[in-house]
Amino acid sequence: MEQHCQQVRQTLAASPRVELLEISYADLVANPQLLIDELAKFLGDGFMPGPAVLSRIRPQLHRQRNS
Questions:
Q1: Under a CB-based contact definition with an 8 Å cutoff, are residues 39 and 47 in contact?
Q2: Per-residue pLDDT tens for 30-44?
Q3: CB–CB of 42/21 below 8 Å?
Q4: Three-state secondary structure along the chain?
């Protein structure tokens, strides 16, 4: 599965029609404001980051995986 995901990422990154922003969920949970700001910059004026966006990130639901 990971190999397939990597191939999809490479294909998307190579396409001139696609802008890709990858965000690690673990990083999002660890520092949500920083990554929400990055997401807002990527999405532009159509995205309005506010308290509702930040409240959707729930670190207590994140579980560490070893694989």
A1: yes
A2: 888 999 999 999 999
A3: yes
A4: CHHHHHHHHHHHHHCCCCCCCCCCHHHHHHCHHHHHHHHHHHHHHHCCCCHHHHHCCCHHHCCCCCC
Structure tokens at 54: 């930040």
Smallest Cα–Cα separation from 5: which of 20, 16, 17? 20
* Residue extents of the structural domains in the chain: 23-67
pLDDT at residue 64, as a whole number: 62
Of the candidates 57, 64, 63, 62, the one whose C-alpha atom is nearest the C-alpha of residue 32 is 57
Tell me how far CA of residue 31 lies from CA of 4, 10, 11, in angstroms.
Answer: 28, 26, 28
pTM for the model:
0.68
